[in-house]
Amino acid sequence: MIKSMKVFAILAISMLMLMGCTSAQGTSSETNEQPEKKEPIAVQGAMDVEVSALLDAMGDYKEEKYGNYSFYVGEIEEIPVVVSRTEVGMVNAAASTTLLIEKYQPKAIINQGTAGGHDPNIHVFDTVIGTEVMNIGSFRSEHLDEGQGMKPEKWIHMTTDIREADGETKEYAALPSDEKLVEAALSVADQYEYGEVVEGKIGSGDWWNREIDRIQWFHENFGTSAEEMEAFAVAQVAHVQDIPFLSIRTISNSEVTDDNIEDLEKAGQYGAEFSVEVVKAIGK
C-alpha cells in the first residue's frame, strides 16, 4: 500500500512538472511574438532643403545609410514613415528608390521637392500635384548633314519601354501617379498657405532649362507644368515593383512668369510641409 502511494505521488509530481513546463513554454511563445510590422509611407527629396521639414515633423528618427544614400526612419503622428534623401539626378533617384523598396517595402512612394515652372499660369511657390510624369531627356533627332546645325525643336520624344510582370513590353510616353494618392493630396490642398495647389504634368531630365523658347516648346507640345530631375526615374522603378507612386513639386523659379523670384530654400520648405499633410491624409 505504501509502495503504491509512493508511485502515485511520483506520478502526480511528474504531471505537475509537465504541466508547469507546458505552461511556461506557452508563456514564452506568447512573449516572443513580434507585433505586425506596418509598411511605411516613403517620402523622397533630393536635397536637405527638400527633406528638413519632414524630419522636423518626425522629431525622433533613426538615420540609416546605404552607400551615399540616407534614409530617416520614424513616425508622423503615429504613421510609419521613411524619408529618403535621393540626391540629385535620374541615376541617383533610380538607385536610391531601388534601395528604398528593397530595405523598407513602403506601401507608397511620394517623390516631392522643387521644380522650375513651364506653365505661365503657375507661379513661384505654387505646388503641382503631378498626375503624370514624363522623361524630357529622352529624344531622338533626324539626320542632318554637317553644317546644318542643331534643331532641338524638331527632336522627337522617345517612349520608355517597360517589361511588365506578365513578360509583355509596353511603351509609355508618361507614367501616371496613383489615383488614390492624387485624391489624398488634393484633399488637403486647402491647408497649403503659400500659393495654389494645382494638378499638372511633371517633366524630368538631367538638365536645367532656362531658354524661354525651349520651355514654351515643352509646355505647348507635351503639356508640361514644371520640370525637375528625379520624378520619372522614381516612377519607373515604382511601376516595375508595383508600388503606388505620387509626384508633388513646388515651384522655386520660373522663366515664363513675371514673378522675378528664385528661392529654392523656401520652395523646398513649403513643399515638404505640404507633403507632411499628404502623409497624414494617406495614413488615415
From TrEMBL:
Keywords: Signal. InterPro entries: Nucleoside_phosphorylase_d (IPR000845), Nucleoside_phosphorylase_sf (IPR035994). Residues 1-24 form the signal peptide. GO terms for molecular function: adenosylhomocysteine nucleosidase activity; methylthioadenosine nucleosidase activity. GO terms for biological process: L-methionine salvage from S-adenosylmethionine; nucleoside metabolic process. One of its GO terms (cellular component) is cytosol. Transmembrane segments: none annotated. Residues 40-278 form the Nucleoside phosphorylase domain. This is Nucleoside phosphorylase domain-containing protein. It comes from Lederbergia galactosidilytica.
